[in-house]
Design brief:
This protein is of the alpha/beta class. It folds into three domains: 108 residues, Rossmann fold (3-Layer(aba) Sandwich); 107 residues, Rossmann fold; 79 residues, NadA-like (Rossmann fold, 3-Layer(aba) Sandwich), CATH 3.40.50. The protein contains 15 helices and 14 strands. Helix 3 packs parallel to helix 4. The radius of gyration is 20 Å and the shape is globular. The protein binds iron/sulfur cluster (SF4). The site of iron/sulfur cluster has 13 residues, from helix 5. Iron/sulfur cluster (SF4) binds next to helix 5. Keywords: 4Fe-4S, Cytoplasm, Iron, Iron-sulfur, Metal-binding, Pyridine nucleotide biosynthesis, Transferase. Its cofactor is [4Fe-4S] cluster. GO terms for molecular function: 4 iron, 4 sulfur cluster binding; metal ion binding; quinolinate synthetase A activity. This is Quinolinate synthase.
Length: 369
């Protein structure tokens, strides 16, 4: 077990000034081969016994991704995780990811038990957007529709008109903009700038950042592109604008997978958490995936392209929560109904998009929350 000190930026209001803060992550050791086999077998049995299903994010350890797939669970991004957890018949969801993912699952399925192997796994975007400060920011701008990224606490979601993920943010903001709505956006500034650039929407921004994607460097990426001139570059939009500008495709982890599948190229440079590389290599074994660089000349990386909080999830933790029922996610009941509204709005909008149904009627003027 390693205890990591993790630095993140805490925005001081909406002006762009930030303070450096510290958090921690407790990362379990990798089990030895025999222990790994035994843990996987035990988890399989417990999933059956407890009527449970695994829902794993594609940034967590490969073991948790593989086991979720092998046992009928899901490996995906936060949008699909939310949908899958809500619709699956299992009464217990084992969510491997970070805290806001477990909270979203619980908000959508309050009658289900939601267990997390790492209940304390957080996210720099969530940490960097405290509910009280965010509410004050919203109060100063009552004329704006409040759109928050899924990487936020239940209390911040409860203050929002819309929740979005990187998989649907562009479509939803584009629809709000077409309807003439001005937007208050939180918390990721890079994703916000990307959306603003793509849609032309009027976005007033909170200045949070993901500690993993914020570290990708354009200068180093250009050098790597020169080494691999035929490689296509796939970038998550939580990355800085100069990195996004070099991309051949920009999008959520699901969109990155789709782009890699659709493009003719054999080599890809990928700017997102390195956990995603396992998924890409597993699903597209004939293609080659190279990690994008995170540090400039002489610099040392902080996250080194792997989220320390995602790394808190491990096989032993999954076995333990299934065995004991501990680490159940609890969301303040006073927040559940209010936080659910903007999530439901997102799910209804994306479901309509999928079926080709009209979405214009799904973006009402909501006013201040
Ligand atoms: S990878 Fe970034 S956005 Fe995702 S949980 Fe970690 S800190 Fe948060």
């Amino acid at each position: 077990m390693a205890i990591l000190d993790v630095q993140y930026q805490q925005p001081l209001g909406a002006g762009g000034a930030c303070a450096t803060r510290h958090a921690w992550a407790r990362v379990p050791r990798d089990p030895a081969p025999a222990e790994r086999v035994a843990l996987k077998q035990r988890i399989r049995e417990l999933l059956e016994e407890r009527n449970a299903v695994m829902v794993s994010h594609c940034y967590v350890h490969p073991d948790l991704q593989d086991l979720a797939e092998e046992t009928g669970g899901l490996v995906s991004d936060s949008l699909e995780m939310a949908r899958f957890g809500r619709d699956h018949a299992a009464q217990t969801l084992v969510v491997s990811g970070v805290r806001f993912m477990g909270e979203t699952a619980k908000i959508l399925s309050p009658e289900k038990t939601v267990l997390m192997p790492a209940l304390e796994a957080t996210c720099s975007l969530d940490l960097g957007c405290p509910a009280r400060e965010f509410a004050a920011f919203c109060d100063q701008h009552p004329d704006r529709t409040v759109v928050v990224y899924a990487n936020t606490s239940a209390a911040v979601k409860a203050r929002a008109d819309w929740v979005v993920t990187s998989g649907c943010a562009l479509d939803i903001v584009r629809a709000l903009h077409a309807d003439g709505q001005k937007i208050l956006w939180a918390p990721d500034r890079h994703l916000g700038h990307y959306i603003q650039h793509e849609t032309g929407a009027d976005l007033l921004m909170w200045h949070g950042a993901c500690i993993v994607h914020d570290e990708f460097k354009a200068f180093e990426l250009q050098a790597l592109m020169r080494e691999h001139p035929h490689a296509r570059v796939l970038v998550h939009p939580e990355s800085p604008a100069e990195v996004v500008a070099l991309a051949h495709a920009v999008g959520s982890t699901s969109a990155i997978l789709q782009a890699a599948r659709a493009m003719q190229a054999r080599d890809f440079i990928v700017a997102t958490d390195s956990g995603m590389l396992h998924r890409l290599r597993t699903l597209l074994p004939d293609k080659r995936f190279i990690e994008a660089p995170t540090a400039g000349n002489g610099a040392t990386c902080k996250s080194c392209a792997h989220c320390p909080w995602m790394a808190m999830n491990g096989l032993a933790g999954v076995a333990q929560v299934l065995e004991s029922g501990c680490n159940a996610v609890v969301v303040d009941p006073r927040l559940v109904a209010r936080a659910r509204q903007p999530i439901d709005r997102m799910l209804a909008f994306t479901a309509a998009l999928k079926t080709g149904a009209a979405t214009a009627g799904l973006v009402p003027h909501l006013g201040a929350a």
